[in-house]
Amino acid sequence: MPFPHRKGFLSVIHRQTQTPEYWAAFSPNAEDINHIYSQIVEAGKPVSIQELAVGLIRWRMEQEAATLRQQFANDKVYQPKQRYAVGETLAFPALRFARGRVVNVRPGHNPELGNFEVIEVEMTDGRRRQFAAAFTHPHRLNEEDFTRLLDAKPILSAEALYQAYGEHIAVALNEALAQNAEFVRVGDKWFVREMMVEVGVGYLNLAEAALDMAGGGPLKTSAILHEIGFPQNAPPNVQQISLNMALYADERFDEVGYNDKPAWFLRRLEPPEVLQTPALLTVVRSRATATLDDDLLRAAQELDDEWELELGEVRPAESVEVILTPSHRLAGTLGWSCRVASLLPYPNKPRASVRFIDAESGSAMVVWLVRDGRYVWGLREWYDKNDLPAGAYIRLRRGDREGTFVVDYRRRRPHREWVRVAVMQNGRLGFETAQRTLRCEVDDLMAVFMDNPPAIAEARLNRPRDVAQAVREVFPELVRLNPQGNVHGRTLYAAANVLVRCTPRDVFATLVSSNAYVLVGDNYWRMA
């Protein structure tokens, strides 16, 4: 863009790459595609669209800066580290590129700064000013792109620009690369087709056999390569990329790796419960429209239900503790709640497989993270082995090996106690107080023992209920167990989840919207 002289000064720069209009009109051109090609080749591995977009933004910013610098190609720009002679004409970035002629050079005098020179410059307006020269100490004018001194406002980084405009840029790049035969999509990343090794159907059949022998998987790509005897005439990373691409394109295989290292499973051997949400975990929403006050909202949040998870609220953690709810105890699952997600963030794929390590025995178990259903599947045997009831405190922490997580519970010496027990009577749910052996610590308000889980699960499936019906059915049963006739909201949430998968907000909204229940304080309720 032009920089008109105004009394020896230049106007400020408004960089186009810093404007929303520039990126709103973005469409990849041939030079952009060439740059992306080089970016992938240099990386030597598939690159995510976000990385490609950030790299392209940075490249366009550099191109714009180079164009700006070219406009000053005929000017000698002042930098303190250089030496100058009398008669030279200089442009001064810090003075918005005002120009002046050197009229005198003398030694500088400052013991703390060492040797340097002072130049006297007659500016175009006739005034004389002095500047340091041969000054080798760190200085902004020695290090930075001098055109930045003319910017109207601070320059946003490529990463910041991607945060602001990346959605449109990523869509445009994905569309352009998908239409270009030189590029190939590997999962959610892009690679250069020319760098790949051909993988014939014979090797894919061998991969299927290897996974079959492993019980369906999961196996990492490197393990499959070892099993199928893939030719070694290409670098290992190219072999893995090529096989990954071929496996992605074959419907027999499902990529279920939790991190950015692909792991594969045979679709035909995947548990049905990870392909479709079990009926026991299908959430039933309340028709109640009551507004909850702050106390009830806090009480609902404390229950950490996965269907009230806001992903933006998740903060990374090294270990978590959650309460096992009745619906998940019946299904052999764990809710992928806010707390669990702080240790196991949601991946960008429908399902992923990880290994849980039993804290006591050290044995490993394959569990599945199901994104759309928001649950962790594969814990039924572990629950049964440890005799864990609903209400037990479950602990998770990162394992020593990548992709492993240690699972445990609050242990205690076995002891018989009076506890809340759910029983089915003529197709209806009842609650009673009975003695049972406790081998773990439980949340007293949410603990529910279920002596015959299959009967309860069958009753749920045979007689579907909505949230209001579930609350109406369990409330009088719970009242019978309390001499005061009051029931805590946490207990109602747990008991209702024996009959139907529902959220705490829906349970509380059902209570608030009905004249049949009265809040007596501290989240305790009674029948009206």
List keywords for this structure.
seven-stranded mixed beta sheet; At1g16640 B3 domain; alpha+beta; four-stranded antiparallel beta sheet; 3 domains; 25 strands; single chain; 528 residues; Arc Repressor Mutant, subunit A; 17 helices; 34% helix
Say which CATH homologous superfamily of the largest domain is assigned: DNA-binding pseudobarrel domain
- Output the CATH class name of the largest domain: Mainly Beta
- First-to-last CA distance: 76 Å
CATH-level-2 architecture of the largest domain:
Beta Barrel
Task: Detail the poorly predicted runs.
Answer: 1-11
Based on helices, strands and strand pairing, what is the structural class?
alpha+beta
Number of self-contained structural domains: 3
Helix count, DSSP H or I runs of 4 or more residues: 17
Mean pLDDT: 88
Give an overview in words.
The structure is a single chain. The protein has 528 residues and is of the alpha+beta class. It folds into three domains: 1-192, no CATH class; 196-270, Arc Repressor Mutant, subunit A; 279-527, DNA-binding pseudobarrel domain (At1g16640 B3 domain). The protein is built from 17 helices and 25 strands. A seven-stranded mixed sheet has the order 13-18-19-15-16-17-14. Strands 4-5-6-7 form a four-stranded antiparallel sheet, with no helix packed on it. A three-stranded antiparallel sheet has the order 3-9-8. A hairpin with a 5-residue loop joins β4 (89-92) and β5. The radius of gyration is 34 Å and the shape is elongated. The protein starts with a strand and ends with a strand.
